[in-house]
Amino acid sequence: MGLLTNLRDSISRVTDGLFAADDPKRIGIYGPPNAGKTTLANRIARDWTGDAVGPESHIPHETRRARRKEGVEIERNGRTVTIDIVDTPGVTTKVDYKEFLDHDMEKDDAVRRSREATEGVAEAMHWLREDVDGVIYVLDSTTDPFTQVNTMLIGIIESQDLPALILANKTDLPGSDVQQIANAFPQHETIPLSALEGDNMDEVYTKIAEYFG
Amino acid sequence: MPHQCTSCGRTFPDGSKEMLSGCPDCGGNKFQFKPAGATEDPAVDDDAGSPSAAADPSPSTSEDGPASTSDERATDSTPDERAADSTPDERAADQTPSESADATHSDDAASADPSPETDGTEQIADRSDEDTAQASARSEVVSPDELDRASREVEGAETSSPADAEPQPGIDALRDELNDQFESIRIVSPGQYELNLMELYDRQEYIISLQEDGRYVIEMPDAWGIQDE
Question: CB-CB: which of B190, B194, B206 is closest to A126?
């Protein structure tokens, strides 16, 4: 009997290992500033762990350090997929403290935020190079996706052969144009959602399980 | 006397091939070129002439070394070359080894030179000889294409310096482009940054702290304990 129990335990460990319970994939949430990355990360974390990842803000570069939420277990179709979520700072080629002055910020604070945001971009690029197994690329569907940053990052992700899911966020806003994003990156599947409202999250979780499970 | 070694002061006639492998006296490889026309410039003559005139009273002792070497050089060269170069060689031997004294041949050197009137005629013949020697020397080495290219470059340099307006932005743009390409983070001013994403992505070390003076703190790969690269 004891032998059978041991056998069953070891089989269970093996199957757990197969389903990535022991070695969760680390999924980086990438995208330009203010695309809704942290809102999505919080939505995923709250839905499956009850915790949040970090503060959300309409001011760009709120997330200036990569934040990790480990061991997020997502159940899909009777199967559990465990991932580590890394919410990364928004990637951009220019950071200017002046854009923060519009948000009622003192100059000193704006300059510091700008410096931290720049460090954050460096950190995000570093994570992309070293530490992620897959990417959720979040875009604001109310803005033009044809930017240097998007093209470059998607190019890097493709060159790394990382599995990538493109999310067209902010579908709750009137100017949302999901098709424009789908047209910009036709080689990838584009999933519409509103991370803020929780719209279409079921499809997002299904795709996460499919891509990163 | 167009070529002068900048370390020992030895002079060479235009077209001389000796200096091509360095100064035979001191081994120096830096020469200055003074065309025949420039030596006639009174301002240059005055400046260069006065110290050499002071040095002139004791030429015999310092003259021995260079004079003997220039004799050697004369024997080394082919008869044709010597015919073309004989007058400058002689003059170099006659006068002090410093080229500045040669440059003052018209006025100051007249007192030092024992035969001023022959010197004057030699100068004219000398210059015409130099021109042909120069022409022949260049025609042997430099192809017409290279000459054209060189003259175009000179023209380009001449036109670019007075007319700063047009070519300057191109250089600035190029510099900016190079900055963009090679600097991962460029501090435009405090609080304003430009980032080169590819450069940031490509670098193995990880920037953890920026400072406004352009310095930044990085975490070296060794510190991670990762040995995969």
Answer: B206
